[in-house]
Specification:
The protein is of the alpha+beta class and about 170 residues long. The chain is built from 4 helices and 6 strands; from the N terminus they run αααββαββββ. The protein has a 6-stranded antiparallel β-sheet with strand order 1-2-4-5-6-3. The longest helix has 17 residues.
Length: about 170
Amino acid sequence: MMSIFGRLSLMAMRPSTIATRLYSGHDQHVFSMVQQIMKTLTTTKGFDRIASNMEVVSVEPGKVKVQFKVEEEHLNGHGTLHGGYTSFLTDLISTLALMTTGNGNPGVSTDLSVAYMRSAKLNEIITIDADTLKTGKLLTFSTVDFRNEAGKLIAQGKHTKFVGGGASS
């Protein structure tokens, strides 16, 4: 079974590239593409399906904003948002933001960290802002902010991905 990142990569290889769409002024098409990727997640039988309640709020080159409601399946044993789910979303949403840069390569993670500042409880609405800070020939760097309804930072993720081609093992 192909992972979501494999599907992202296949979408990026279509003749009409993301970069062409972005710089031709077709931002709505990129927004629709990100929405479609999120919808595809909900149909998988793998781990990615746990992102099924994400709603894409906005998309621009290098940035993606989504929202979700904290549900029981997202909670840890203390009744708050699970740190592992926050890490998963850091990876997923920052990769979506990277895919909007026109790079066409979802890359592979080399480093991912999350700082947890506040808890989030059942039924809270969380907004996630992913920002691709720098895309180089080999690496990309992103930040992902998780905010509660009051706008307070509950967690911040940092994600580095290898995007260079032709590397040998």
